[in-house]
Amino acid sequence: MVSHPHDEPLELRSKIPGWAHGLPLVEYLAQRFPYHDRAAWTQLLQAGRLRHCDRPVTEDVVLGPGDTVTYLREHTEPPVRLDLELVHVDDAVVVATKPPHLPSHSDGAFIRHTMLHQLSLRVPGTRPRLVHRLDRETSGLMVFARTAAASRALEAQFRSGRVHKEYLAVAHGRFGQDTVEVDAPIGFAPGSAIQLRRAVCADGAPAATRFEVLERLADATLVRAVPATGRTHQIRVHLEHLGHPLVGDCLYGQPDEGYLAFLRHVKSGGDPMLVRPCGTNRQLLHAAVLEFDHPLTGAPTRFESPAPADFTDWMQARRGADTADPA
Question: In a structure prediction context, what are the per-residue pLDDT tens digits for the chain, which is 327 residues long?
Fold first, then answer.
């Protein structure tokens, strides 16, 4: 299920600070939120985009103690998949599977189309707390805290490496060994024009991943990836380091220009879910196992998630191509 672009206005609410008491509404907005000038705020007021104490406003409104102003900002979010699945809900945690392309949290144009917001709709009365992240294109299991105490307990487990995670990943090329242990530090990629890019480097943070071959195709390998640490992009970086970058990855396994071209495409209004030359519209990485100590009982709690249809469909198509290829 892919959502349509979300065009409902965002309600941005501001409680009036003491220094603004007695100011005209537009004067306050121009000072407090200078991304619009006075003329622009006046136009928004005339267009009915502003509310004073939840009521329509006129240009002669003067602000006082306890007042609020609401800006109904026009906002269109990119289409995403919203077919997340609730796996487990109790008083302390929510465990759910994230579909590919749905961001974990607000980022740029994504505000409502996020795991956090969608879970708040699926589990009424809950403001889920983020304790770890998956990249936007990565699918699979995530745990969210429902209380501050649960959040602290889970964050401590993630920091100390006590959370067990297993991923399914499809890498380019054929692995020669059935099991590969990578113990290679990860830091910012030296010389890269892309700030978020990481690389194996001597002065990086310790990072270790075990890769176990599950299936070999003619030009790709399905592996189970078990990270012992939790560095940013760890599995993707270690696969690139091995010479087997992740299938569908727009950032790793290619020069900076490839990713920068992808960004230009998206920022110009292009579809981020466009199918890539490798035959998939995202990186083939899925969080398949998540195990942690329950923050209320302390009991080991394990969840498993099979690879989603787009992942298995790509594998099946590749098997068929291998069968048809006499080489």
Answer: 555 445 566 778 889 999 999 999 999 999 999 888 999 999 899 888 899 998 998 888 999 999 999 988 776 777 777 889 999 999 999 999 999 999 888 765 666 788 988 898 889 887 899 999 999 999 999 999 999 999 999 999 999 999 999 999 999 999 999 999 999 999 999 999 999 999 999 999 999 999 999 999 999 999 999 999 999 999 999 999 999 999 999 999 999 999 999 888 887 778 888 889 999 999 999 999 999 999 999 999 999 999 999 999 999 999 977 666 554
Kindly name the residue from 90, 135, 322, 325 that is annotated as catalytic.
135
**Among positive and negative, which fits the CA dihedral 43, 48, 50, 51?**
positive
Using the Cα atoms of residue 256, residue 259, residue 264 and residue 265 in order, give the sign of their dihedral: positive
* Vertex 261: Cα angle to 256 and 266 (nearest 5): 130
Give the CB-side neighbour count of residue 113, counting CA atoms within 13 A: 25
Architecture of domain 10-73: Roll (3.10)
Tell me the sheet residues that pair with 275: none
Strands 68-73 and 93-98: unpaired
Has 135 been annotated as catalytic? yes
The tokens describing 102, both together, are 């749905």
Which residues, including other chains, have CB under 8 Å from residue 271's CB and lie 6 or more apart? none
| Whole-model pTM over 0.90 | no
Residue spans per domain, the chain: 10-73, 85-324
DSSP state of 224: E
CATH of 85-324, one of 2.60.40.10, 3.30.2350.10, 3.40.30.10, 3.65.10.10: 3.30.2350.10
Q: Tokens 């579809």 label which residue?
A: 271
Rg (CA), the chain: 24
* Cβ-count burial 242-261 (b if 16+ within 10 Å, e if not): bebbbbbbbbbbeeeeebee
Residue 204 sits at φ, ψ, to 5 deg, of -80, 180
